[in-house]
Amino acid sequence: MDSPLGWGVSDEMNADEAVMWRVEVDRTLRSTGLVLEELDSVPEWERFLAAHEWGVRMAPRFRQRVVEAPFALGAPRWTVDPEFDLRFHVRRARLPEGAGWPELLLAAAQVAMTPFDRTRPPWEALLYEGLPGGRAAYLLKVHHSATDGLSAIQLLEQLHPPTRGPHPAKSQPRRTDEKPTSPLGALVGQARRDVRAVPGLVRDAGSIAVSSLIDPVGALRFAASYSRSLYRVLTPPSAAGSPLLAKRSLSWRFTALDVPFADLRAAGKTAGGSVNDAFLAALLGAYRRYHAAMGSPIDSIPMTIPISLRKPGEPQGGNRITAARFAAPVSTADPRARIEQVRALVLAARGEPALDAVGVVSPLMARLPGSLTARIAGPLTKANDLQASNIPGISRDAYLAGAKIERMYLYGPLPGCAAMITLLSHGKTACVAANLDTASFTEPELFERCLLGGFTEVLALCPDAPAPLLRGAPA
After folding, report:
1. Which of the residues are catalytic?
2. What are 46-100's pLDDT values in tens digits?
3. DSSP strand E in 371-452: where?
């Protein structure tokens, strides 16, 4: 009962995480994610601090910083920060008098844009007071190398209790007193792991050779099928980038939208699709409206969606995702037809044998200097006009230090793309969080209205569906 969670237990970054950590030598490739929670009241500060002190003991990853071997030889490692100070990571602030969601979203984007101190554990938590009606907001900022969206929600579900009152019987793990790893220690550890990996590589190679001898025809067929799939996966989408969205910058803008989850799912079913298909179709509808309003209609855009590779029983925490890229239809006006098109594209992408082709080359990129890794990986994301993600959230009531969590939005990073838009289900609401590059979207208020319109037209497929709500929009 008094053991920490089995979350983020690996001390070594995997190849994808190492790439995320190192490509930030290019400032446009920062991988900062932020969870924004709307609270129904202001938590008592001491109880709020105690909740984070307990959370750090439950998830020791939050007391760890990243250490690199000399000359970046090998993967970065997580090690305990001997100078860890909770006061650096947990703070509170107050919005100006009369402020509301526009000011909160501006403050949240400013927090997310600020780079981490890479000599400390890469996370921050802020409590914002001053929302109308005595409400508050909680911001949790975490580097993507520590967690993907799914494992972040898995962690929050375990740290957010289901009731408002205290839980005196909850697990109380002790803080560990492990010794930190030095850069030289990281190098020695990498060398040992490389040596231990050799027998396994030899066994795998032998197994493949034996299989090829037993069934040479089957081996050739698989190789040919995989090669064709690899070509399709590595070939850039046929869609050219939108001229309107060509510029990139370091400036982010946050937008929040509330959509009735059950009705969005029902709208997808009317066209034989899922809630994810309806979500993506709504986003593409917003892009169609925006380009039409700006006098620059387009047929399609290059788009990427993450696909989870996490299997049942695997340890929680870290990153287990790959990416599917395709030319997404924008010019299709009929939302039903657009859902059908999106569903076909997503199913085709998920069915590719070489879906994790990027994961195959990531171990090689992870051994390169950060500047070279950024030159290789950067174009893959900078070419995207849209990255979109759909993550299952917490379906039950959840609380933080006695305050009920009314809404939860997940703002993904902008690794060089024009927009990252995430749907996180929370109770009966699909909380849509849009992170926009302000150099790409020169008329962000117009795009927000188009985003509202894109969801409205998809929800119209479900009779009597409530209208979506743009947070912070004029009444």
Report:
1. 144
2. 999 999 999 999 999 999 999 988 766 678 999 999 999 999 999 999 999 999 9
3. 386-391, 399-400, 403-411, 419-426, 429-437
Q: What is the spatial distance between Cα 235 and Cα 212, in angstroms, rounded to a whole number?
A: 28
- Give residue for tokens 């929680």: 316
**Token digits for 264?**
């969005």
Q: What percent of the chain has pLDDT over 70?
A: 85
Q: Is 325 helix (H, G, I), strand (E, B) or coil?
A: strand
pLDDT (tens digit per residue) in 39-55: 999 999 999 999 999 99
Structure tokens at 178: 């492990």
Query: Which residues, other chains included, contact 13 with Cβ-Cβ below 8 Å and sequence gap of 6+?
Result: 21, 66, 75, 76, 77, 78, 145, 366
Residue 430 pairs with which residues in a beta bridge?
Answer: 259, 425
Backbone φ and ψ for 343, nearest 5 degrees, come out as -60, -45
* Continuous segment of H or E residues that includes residue 91: strand 90-94
b/e per residue 240-278 (b: at least 16 CB within 10 A): bbbebbeeeeeebbbbbbbbbbebbbbbbeebebbbbbb
Mode of pairing for the β-strands spanning 321-329 and 386-391: unpaired
Hunting for tokens 């509170």 — which residue is that? Answer: 92
Assigned token pair, 312: 């049942």
Sorted by sequence, the CB contacts under 8 Å of residue 90 that are 6+ apart come out as 48, 49, 52, 124, 125, 126
Single-letter amino acid, residue 398: A
Give 334's DSSP letter: -
Query: C-alpha 94: how far from its chain's center?
Result: 27
